Amino acid sequence: MAPRSAKRSGVLELAVLGLLDQSPMHGYELRKRLSGVLGTFHAISYGSLYPCLKDLVARGWLVEDGEGEPTGLSGKRARIVYRLTAEGKEHFQQLIAEAGPDTWEDERFGVRLAFFGRTEASVRMRILEGRRSRLEERLDTLRQSLARSRERLDSYTLELQQHGLDSVEREVRWLDELIASERDASTTTKKSGAPTGQPVTTTSGAGNYPTAHGE
Amino acid sequence: MAPRSAKRSGVLELAVLGLLDQSPMHGYELRKRLSGVLGTFHAISYGSLYPCLKDLVARGWLVEDGEGEPTGLSGKRARIVYRLTAEGKEHFQQLIAEAGPDTWEDERFGVRLAFFGRTEASVRMRILEGRRSRLEERLDTLRQSLARSRERLDSYTLELQQHGLDSVEREVRWLDELIASERDASTTTKKSGAPTGQPVTTTSGAGNYPTAHGE
DNA sequence: GCCTACATGTAAATAGTTACATGATTGA
DNA sequence: TCAATCATGTAACTATTTACATGTAGGC
């Protein structure tokens, strides 16, 4: 085993590996795409990204290429294209094969879902159902606390809390749709003997995916 | 002016001041209520809260009381009840009178809304509308990026992004309701000469308040 | 010639959590 | 008496942003 210099983030690391697993890229491009899979509305800062890339290189999961062949006469440099190594690919596969309790927590669930296309069906299901029961748990707490304090709160606070509750309920319904279409896909696959465990899009454009209302 | 030892957080600070403005409380109780106004689903940790309280005391906005009168025979201590000072009250009033661009950003909007009951009507309106146009801006970016990359993305990533979009759209609709009921309230007040600028609850339980899907 | 977007990076500050340490009170 | 919940706190660590520093490429 490597000497465990550990340290680096978790979600960001996973997101970067996942994007580079699709295709090599330089940091600037990577940053633009990260918001898509991280689901955080503001882009990650370079102050986070570059140190992370450096770290991944140091751990042997990434290598830096000096931007392909010098196109024509320009010979421009400056860009550093990052690419997964064999170990990097293997490591990423290992990461997306995990289905532990933290995979369905707020911070990770989004990225994991974004990479479901490369995740095994059984793992996908475990994460979706884990997420669902996590939210159900949250609903219990929220409803209880709302029931306890309903008359003490003014209408604005109430509106805020009610909204939070609605958001979680909505995410549960969304998950139900996703889970249902996973089941459909797996039974259809078994019956018809279709070759891949490829994703099936839910029919409606409904459902949503809120998590927090502040921050 | 005080020597600016500054340092402390912002949202957490505001939330603590707002809760203590309603009634004095000890730290443990405070923590429980904080999740309600911070809208963060996991409670804030003591490792954040106590240092923050200490800081607020140091800046003269809070004082520590040693739990009222010793009830009957017990004379139990240990609990430290925090209470706003006159300067603390004034400072809080100043904070909730602000309506700058950061007030409608993700981190602050929730807390500000939670304290709308003590916020002037014009400020409330400015914040709600600021938030609304901020989200509209977000929708533009999101729609554009989704349009650009639609065919490149697999169905899961698409589902994720679509969900994020839906969530923001839903928050806009919710804000529209809140804004409408603010307008109603202000015209009714003017016409009937009702005494307070007190909040009016929206009729439906609809609307939601999502912001981020990961994290 | 200048401005905008592209592109990479570092140091310091900021925000917050986790793990630990301690002890009182309440109810089964 | 034992466990759970109440209650307060600190030190170390984790994650992330902001501000700065630097330079290139392309359009007007």
Q: Output the structural class of chain A.
A: mainly alpha
**Overall average residue pLDDT of chain A:** 84
Q: In one word, what is the shape of chain A?
A: globular
* Radius of gyration of chain A, whole Å: 21 Å
Order of strands in the sheet with most strands of chain A: 1-3-2
Through-space gap between termini of chain A: 38 Å
* Chain pair sharing the greatest interface: A-B, 52 and 52 residues
Beta-strand content bin of chain A: under 5%
Main β sheet profile of chain A:
3 strands, antiparallel
In terms of per-residue confidence, which ranges of chain A show pLDDT below 50 for 5 or more consecutive residues?
1-6, 69-75, 202-215
Helix content of chain A: 55-70%
For this entry, what is the oligomeric state of its chains? homodimer
Number of helices of chain A: 7
Explain what you see.
Two copies of one chain form a homodimer. Chain A is mostly helical and about 220 residues long. Chain A contains seven helices and three strands, in the order αβααββαααα. A three-stranded antiparallel β-sheet of chain A has the order 1-3-2. Residues about 1-5, about 70-75 and about 200-215 of chain A have low confidence and may be disordered. At the A-B interface, helix 2, helix 5, helix 6 and helix 7 of A face helix 2, helix 5, helix 6 and helix 7 of B. The structure holds a DNA duplex (28 and 28 nucleotides).
